[in-house]
Amino acid sequence: ADAPTAAGGAARRRPSRRGKLPGRQDWSSWPHYQGAGSGFRGYWYPVAFSSHITGKPKAITLLGERIVVIRDGGKAYALKDRCPHRGVPLSYGNQQFPGTISCAYHGWTFDLETGDLKAAITDGPQSPICGKVTQPTYDVEERLGMVWIFVGDGEDAPPIDDQLPEELRDNPAVIGARIQSREGNWRFACENGYDEGHAKYLHRTALWRLFKAMPVWNETRIERRGRWIYRVQEAQHWDADFPGLGRWNNQAWFKLKPPKQIANIGNTGSHRKVNPAIAAEDFPGFASVSMPGVLRIVYPTFIHYEFYVPVDADNHLYVGVMANFEKGIRTLPFYAKYLGAVRWLFHGQFSGQDKWMVEVTDAPPERLYRPDDSLLQWRKLAEDVTEERIERLHASGLVVENPSKQAG
Ligand code: FES
Question: Residue of 54, 143, 185, 268 with fewest CB within 10 Å of its CB?
Answer without folding.
Answer: 54
